[in-house]
Amino acid sequence: MSRQCLPVLLTRPEDGSARFAARLTGHVVLSPLSEPAFLDAPLPPAEGLILTSATAVAALRGARPAPRAWCVGDRTAEAARVAGFDARSAQGDAEALFRLVLDSGETGPLLHPRGRESRGDLARRLTAAGIPTTAVVVYEMTARPLSAEARTLLKGPVVVPLFSPASARRFLTVAKAAHPVFACLSPAVAEVLPPKAVRHVAARPDADAMVELVTLLQRLETAPVQG
């Protein structure tokens, strides 16, 4: 019996969804549930930046309040380098970034330009560890509804990748009756989902591992058991 290829619904912001979709095969639908709105916030001078998303780099809009940047992952580090920063990637999540900065000998002061929804409390933790860090909200995510095509897709089996706890909560708010197969970037994302939700967690918290997981789930003949 031939295996069915499950469709994929991407709900992250437009740019991120487009980049991820380009790495997938099969039927992929983009329906962003949010888009960033950049805020005019004063940025204090610092010796280095803490960057937890490529959106934060875009929100700086050419400003360079510090020469170097400590980045959560490779995609964010790439965006920071393009923007002219001396960037280093933690290749992981907020906890990996916290450990990287602590182990680096960095003394600060640091600046964490971030979204209004943020996880990990990095500025407070780094400051408590002896590295003065200030958090400034430089963007917020504004909501968008599911498209008609996405609502139709959710009536059947579909893979929904989730890249953050915030995006997981956003999806659950607009698709309460849906029962997709979730591909989660990290355990922190999976924890947001209801107990009966079918969820799988990527082997690593990066785009390559998510592509591998989503591709595997697409090829399953039937929805997998909860993992």
Structural write-up:
The chain has helices at residues 14-21, 54-60, 74-82, 94-104, 122-128, 148-153, 165-174, 187-190, 207-218, and strands at residues 8-10, 28-30, 34-38, 48-51, 68-71, 86-89, 110-115, 133-143, 159-162, 181-184, 198-201. With 227 residues, it is of the alpha/beta class. It folds into two domains: 8-35 and 143-218, Rossmann fold; 44-140, Rossmann fold. The strands form three sheets. A six-stranded mixed beta sheet has the order 3-8-7-4-5-6, with helices on both faces. Strands 9-10-11 form a three-stranded parallel beta sheet. It has a two-stranded parallel ribbon with strand order 1-2. Helix 2 packs parallel to helix 3 (74-82). The two termini are 24 Å apart. The relative contact order is 0.18.
Give average pLDDT, whole number: 92
Q: Which CATH architecture of the largest domain?
A: 3-Layer(aba) Sandwich
For the record, the CATH class of the largest domain is: Alpha Beta
Q: How widely separated are the two ends?
A: 24 Å
Biggest pleated-sheet summary: 6 strands, mixed
Strand content: 15-25%
Number of helices: 9
Unreliable spans are 221-227
Q: How many distinct beta strands?
A: 11
Residues in helices, as a percent range: 25-40%
Query: What class would the helix/strand composition place it in?
Result: alpha/beta
The CATH topology of the largest domain is: Rossmann fold
SSE pattern? EHEEEHEHEHEHEHEHEHEH
- Report the C-alpha radius of gyration, rounded: 18 Å
